[in-house]
Design goal:
The complex is a heterotrimer of chains A (241), B (336) and C (297). Chain A is α/β, with parallel strands linked by helices. Chain A is 38% helix and 29% strand. Chain B has one domain (10-249). The chains are: A alpha/beta (241), B mainly alpha (336), C mainly alpha (297). Chains B and C meet through helix 6, helix 7, helix 13 and helix 15 of B and helix 4, helix 10 and helix 12 of C.
Chain lengths: 241, 336, 297
């Protein structure tokens, strides 16, 4: 569905990604793991067109033989293609209500009836959001904010959901709940590219995973295979070989 | 053996001699108009450089210079005003002022000191604000000063303004003042004080982490700038012999900002050159405006030019740097 | 309430309405691009002269003139944004401020060149000059028009920002730029819309200003613009509700200052307004309704 080929990205004068190749197939959860500063968030920002691409291609396969180049689009156009990001640190509209945050998730959509149905569905998926729909997003707890961030992204009806550090700053119980939710959404058919520092949790739910080190992909494979890989275990899981 | 650090570098010494030669030549051979024009250009240079200290080095955005000039100008004018006309022009003056008739130098110093005192009081209040908040607060200060002077007509003759101020300022006084101002700001910029100011401009948090007292530095730059502006106001009044409450207002504030920005925030050479260029440009545009009856044309052109500079060369013509050779070799205080 | 106080109250509300109309634009624009548009006050002048120009043709009904003034204001705001603000995006904030200062100089001096500095008598329908009796006081109809149309515009704006997609996008953009881009909000178009609406309001204030005070010249926008900024600061820059509240508070305070103190102090009116600014910035830098920001640079 999504293919990164030889992707080169710079932040200012610094080259952050030195030509990475990565693929996400329809229906998968793909995890991108790596240390701080390896370029994980940069990868997602490049896909969402927040950063200019200096080299290589980002291609979105829409099925039936049509494909689009995301690396030449504006952020708004990328969203319109169904590639939606749930950013690191949640980035909610803190002063707006829960409901308004959800509606802004559906900003690019014109199908009012379907948006209404999706709102109802979000209340089912995350009952707390339904209860607090008129509260400001900033007043929610950390875990609730994360749910709202995911729900807001889902409101765009993504073909591909980009999740950046969903576990960051959450209590351990909450982390488990978020990962359960991610898995459940995937079973319903949402394709995901998941960036995580919590490599263990990510690899456990991922179909496949890539390891990013200082801007290069150094390893890839199924989640299970990477979990057993001695180098990965030592470097990212803090476990013995 | 190296020269002591307080001496100017070879090119700067040459520039000073050059300026003195120009003044001497004008004084001996040129018309009164040309000498006055030269003096006004030099005063603009001093004003731009002193604003460079407040705004360029420190990263503040004050528009308050005209307010300080007005205060310095009025205070000095009241001090030097001929005693025999004071009773008629300024009936409310207390005795000790009504009977005093000072020389230019002490009057200028006192005018500048009052301006600096005003800056101190206002600065403590507004320097915690950043960027355009400070800009609007200092614009407000211009309005406040004008309104107060307008209404204190027993001291200032209100809206009529003070005319017949003795012409005590000559080109040599202005030259000395301008050279002192440029020299002072130059010294500050290239001393640790100036580096601390520029560090604060680039990243206040980082500067504070290094133990720089940001507020004190800002206050110092603001008060010192006001002192110099007050002195410039005092000298100007005794050059043109008249002052009105609105003589130094927002258009002047804008012109000075243009000089600093076009020259390059932090660059003294840039401010000097920009001040000379813009002062001469406005002066020579005046007959054109009058001929075409297009008053305000030069302001429009300067403003459009400024927008162009901001779009094409946002750091100004010189950035923060000085051309080589003006100072003595040392580590450059310039920042990108 | 005695007639005198009612009169003063209405005067304050009238002046406050005008300040509020200008202040709204300041705040909307600040909220989104974090920039004080120094040329904003000059749109009042643009609105006033547009009104005069259209009215002197005698061809258009007043509602059409009002509409055209709103459109002219919106187009002027869009132009300012394109010429002087969009190109400076990403530059230090002070750069943008200097650019709008330059735009203000261009508008004011351009106005002087094209229209001359001579004040002109404003044309306004005769009926506006008539007086209306409210209880013990009699007020000029134009005052009621000012208060009424301001309230109407405020309600329309409220409905717009709360109830429409574009309005929501504006608030989202002011709240979190990164998230707004990730939701697919077209940032350029939303900024343009904020400039258009804010500027239209300021131009409309120009129409009302001319109608109330009778004479206009190319520099009339300057002082009300600065005062509206003071109103913004009082209410909390960036908050639309704060701008309206600040506008009315400032209008009432100014009228009270002139009306309640001995006449020798009334000359200090403008000094009072700006002293208030410095005081408010000092005591509550976020204003009444503004949100604190880590870095109000």
């Amino acid at each position: 569905m999504l293919t990164l080929a030889e992707l080169v990205v710079e932040r200012g004068a610094t080259r952050v990604l030195h030509g990475i190749d990565l693929e996400v197939r329809s229906g998968e959860i793909v995890a991108l793991i790596g240390a701080n500063g390896a370029g994980k968030t940069t990868t997602l920002h490049a896909i969402s067109a927040l950063l200019p691409v200096r080299g290589g291609r980002i291609t979105l396969d829409l099925g039936e033989g049509t494909a689009k180049r995301l690396d030449r689009m504006s952020p708004a156009e990328v969203v319109a293609c169904g590639v939606v990001q749930c950013p690191e640190g949640r980035q909610l509209f803190a002063s707006l209500t829960v409901l308004e945050n959800l509606l802004l998730g559906a900003y690019r959509r014109d199908d009012r009836e379907a948006v209404k149905r999706d709102l109802a569905r979000m209340s089912e998926l995350f009952p707390v959001l339904g209860e607090r729909r008129n509260q400001s997003a900033g007043s929610l707890s950390g875990g609730e904010q994360m749910m709202l961030a995911i729900a807001r992204a889902l409101m765009a009806r993504p073909r591909l959901l980009l999740l950046d550090e969903p576990s960051l700053g959450l209590a351990p119980q909450m982390v488990d709940r978020i990962f359960e939710t991610i898995l459940a959404l995937n079973r319903e058919g949402v394709t995901m590219l998941l960036v995580e520092q919590n490599a263990l949790a990510a690899l456990e739910i991922a179909d496949r995973a890539y390891v990013l080190e200082t801007g290069r992909i150094v390893q890839s494979g199924t989640g299970a295979a990477l979990l057993d890989d001695p180098a990965v275990r030592a470097a990212y899981l803090g476990l013995g070989a | 053996m190296t020269a002591p650090p307080f001496l100017p570098g070879p090119k700067a010494a040459l520039a000073m001699l050059g300026a003195a030669a120009v003044v001497a030549f004008a004084d001996l051979y040129l018309s009164t108009y040309a000498v006055t024009l030269l003096s006004l250009v030099m005063l603009n240079v001093a004003l731009a450089v002193s604003l460079q200290l407040t705004n360029g080095l420190t990263g503040l955005f004050s528009l308050g210079h005209p307010a300080f000039m007005t205060v310095g100008g009025y205070v000095a004018a009241i001090l030097t005003y001929p005693v025999r006309r004071k009773g008629f022009m300024m009936p409310d003056l207390p005795d000790w002022l009504a009977t005093a008739q000072w020389d230019l130098l002490p009057a200028t110093l006192v005018g500048a000191a009052v301006a600096a005192l005003l800056a101190l009081v206002v600065g403590i209040a507004v320097l915690r604000l950043k960027g355009h908040y400070l800009a609007v607060a200092t614009l407000g200060l211009i309005v406040i000063v004008r309104v107060v002077i307008n209404n204190l007509d027993g001291y200032t003759r209100g809206g009529l303004g003070l005319s017949g101020v003795p012409r005590l300022t000559g080109p040599w006084e202005v030259l000395v003042f301008t050279l002192l101002t440029v020299g002072l700001v130059w010294r500050i910029k290239h001393a640790s004080l100036g580096r601390a100011m520029m560090a604060m401009r680039e990243n206040e948090l980082a500067a504070r982490c290094m133990g720089i007292d940001a507020f004190a530095l800002k206050l110092l730059a603001f008060v010192l700038g006001a002192f110099l502006a007050g002195a410039a106001g005092a000298l100007t009044v005794h050059l043109v012999s008249v002052i009105t409450p609105g003589a130094y207002g927002i258009p002047l504030a804008f012109s000075l900002v243009v000089m600093v920005v076009v020259g390059g925030s932090g660059s003294i050479t840039g401010a000097v050159l920009a001040a000379i260029a813009i002062s001469l440009l406005s002066e020579f545009a005046r007959p054109l405006e009058e001929g075409l009856e297009l008053y305000g044309l030069s302001q429009v052109l300067v403003a459009l030019g400024l927008i162009l500079v901001l779009r094409l060369r946002p750091t100004g013509l010189f950035g923060s740097r000085e051309p080589a050779g003006f100072g003595r070799p040392r580590f450059s205080g310039g920042t990108s | 309430m005695s007639a005198y106080y009612l009169q003063q109250l209405l005067n304050g509300l009238m002046l406050g309405s005008l300040y509020a109309l200008i202040a709204i634009g300041f705040s909307m624009i600040y909220g989104i691009v974090r920039l004080i548009n120094f040329a904003h006050g000059d749109l009042l002048m643009v609105g006033a002269f547009t009104t005069l120009g259209l009215a002197s043709t005698g061809l258009l009904p007043w509602w059409a003139i009002a509409l055209l003034v709103l459109v002219t204001g919106a187009l002027s705001g869009i132009t300012i944004e394109r010429v002087a603000i969009r190109p400076m995006r990403g530059a230090p904030q002070v750069t943008g401020f200097i650019a709008t200062l330059a735009v203000s100089v261009v508008i004011e001096n351009g106005g002087l060149i094209l229209l001359s500095g001579q004040p002109r008598t404003f044309l306004f329908p005769e009926i506006m000059r008539s007086r209306v009796t409210i209880g013990p006081a009699s007020v000029a109809a134009v005052d009621l028009v000012i208060i009424g149309s301001t309230l109407l515009l405020c309600v329309l704006l409220l409905l717009f920002v709360r109830g429409t997609r574009m309005g929501r996008a504006m608030r989202a953009l002011a709240d979190n730029l990164l998230a707004a881009r990730l939701m697919g909000i077209d940032v350029d178009r939303t900024i343009m819309a904020a400039f258009a609406i804010g500027s239209a309001f300021a131009a409309f204030a120009g129409l009302l200003w001319g109608g109330r005070f009778g004479q206009i010249d190319p520099l009339i926008g300057f002082a009300p613009g600065l005062k509206a900024f003071v109103a913004c600061v009082i209410g909390g820059v960036g908050s639309i509700g704060g701008a309206v509240l600040g506008g009315y508070l400032l209008g009432l305070a100014e009228v009270m200052f002139v009306g309640m103190l001995p006449p020798i102090y009334s000359g200090y009116r403008d000094a009072f307004v700006f002293a208030t600014l410095i005081l408010v910035l000092l005591l509550m830098p976020n204003g009444l309704l503004g949100r604190p920001e880590e870095d109000r640079a």
